[in-house]
């Protein structure tokens, strides 16, 4: 859904990416840095530092965007880089959801959202293995999922100490679950239709 705005966003991302290029920081290093940053979300949630938690997830997610920009601008896009990026993305989302559960998200909702997040990525990988272009297919890609997670934490910050705290934390994740479910169906249908057209 946010893919249509990617060109405008990339203009700003590229400016920062050029700085990393000048100091010769490799894309895979940025990917791993994003993963390391994401790990800190769990202890921050445990000690209930919600504002730093929000900042850490923003920074970690930004690293995920930045590594791709640096790889593209340096003509250093490699198959292993794509594998590492996808692998780290899955671990980072695990830490994000764990941090939400720690601060009060019902466990079952966290597990469902995590499972659907993995399924959306898995179905995309299945399509790409069969030569299909899967980018932009589905209403909720990684960017939309991260925005909903950030919205959940932002509402938790606003409603901290209020009786509506858990509700504020939960609503964006319920939306995430619904959109992820729709995305899985959209991608499966897209793969089905595309593969049938080839025969």
TrEMBL record:
<dbReference type="InterPro" id="IPR048254">
    <property type="entry name" value="CDP_ALCOHOL_P_TRANSF_CS"/>
</dbReference>
<dbReference type="GO" id="GO:0008654">
    <property type="term" value="P:phospholipid biosynthetic process"/>
</dbReference>
<feature type="binding site">
    <location>
        <position position="64"/>
    </location>
    <ligand>
        <name>Mg(2+) 2</name>
    </ligand>
</feature>
<feature type="binding site">
    <location>
        <position position="85"/>
    </location>
    <ligand>
        <name>Mg(2+) 2</name>
    </ligand>
</feature>
<keyword id="KW-1133">Transmembrane helix</keyword>
<keyword id="KW-0808">Transferase</keyword>
<dbReference type="InterPro" id="IPR000462">
    <property type="entry name" value="CDP-OH_P_trans"/>
</dbReference>
<keyword id="KW-0460">Magnesium</keyword>
<feature type="transmembrane region" description="Helical">
    <location>
        <begin position="142"/>
        <end position="159"/>
    </location>
</feature>
<feature type="transmembrane region" description="Helical">
    <location>
        <begin position="94"/>
        <end position="121"/>
    </location>
</feature>
<feature type="binding site">
    <location>
        <position position="89"/>
    </location>
    <ligand>
        <name>Mg(2+) 2</name>
    </ligand>
</feature>
<keyword id="KW-0443">Lipid metabolism</keyword>
<keyword id="KW-0444">Lipid biosynthesis</keyword>
<feature type="binding site">
    <location>
        <position position="67"/>
    </location>
    <ligand>
        <name>Mg(2+) 1</name>
    </ligand>
</feature>
<feature type="transmembrane region" description="Helical">
    <location>
        <begin position="30"/>
        <end position="63"/>
    </location>
</feature>
<dbReference type="InterPro" id="IPR044270">
    <property type="entry name" value="AIP_synthase"/>
</dbReference>
<keyword id="KW-0472">Membrane</keyword>
<feature type="transmembrane region" description="Helical">
    <location>
        <begin position="165"/>
        <end position="190"/>
    </location>
</feature>
<keyword id="KW-1003">Cell membrane</keyword>
<keyword id="KW-0812">Transmembrane</keyword>
<dbReference type="InterPro" id="IPR043130">
    <property type="entry name" value="CDP-OH_PTrfase_TM_dom"/>
</dbReference>
<comment type="pathway">
    <text>Lipid metabolism; phospholipid metabolism.</text>
</comment>
<keyword id="KW-0479">Metal-binding</keyword>
<protein>
    <recommendedName>
        <fullName>Archaetidylinositol phosphate synthase</fullName>
        <ecNumber>2.7.8.39</ecNumber>
    </recommendedName>
</protein>
<feature type="binding site">
    <location>
        <position position="64"/>
    </location>
    <ligand>
        <name>Mg(2+) 1</name>
    </ligand>
</feature>
<comment type="function">
    <text>Catalyzes the formation of archaetidylinositol phosphate (AIP) from CDP-archaeol (CDP-ArOH or CDP-2,3-bis-(O-phytanyl)-sn-glycerol) and 1L-myo-inositol 1-phosphate (IP or 1D-myo-inositol 3-phosphate). AIP is a precursor of archaetidyl-myo-inositol (AI), an ether-type inositol phospholipid ubiquitously distributed in archaea membranes and essential for glycolipid biosynthesis in archaea.</text>
</comment>
<dbReference type="Pfam" id="PF01066">
    <property type="entry name" value="CDP-OH_P_transf"/>
</dbReference>
<dbReference type="GO" id="GO:0005886">
    <property type="term" value="C:plasma membrane"/>
</dbReference>
<keyword id="KW-0464">Manganese</keyword>
<feature type="binding site">
    <location>
        <position position="85"/>
    </location>
    <ligand>
        <name>Mg(2+) 1</name>
    </ligand>
</feature>
<comment type="similarity">
    <text>Belongs to the CDP-alcohol phosphatidyltransferase class-I family.</text>
</comment>
<dbReference type="GO" id="GO:0000287">
    <property type="term" value="F:magnesium ion binding"/>
</dbReference>
<dbReference type="GO" id="GO:0016780">
    <property type="term" value="F:phosphotransferase activity, for other substituted phosphate groups"/>
</dbReference>
<feature type="active site" description="Proton acceptor">
    <location>
        <position position="89"/>
    </location>
</feature>
<keyword id="KW-1208">Phospholipid metabolism</keyword>
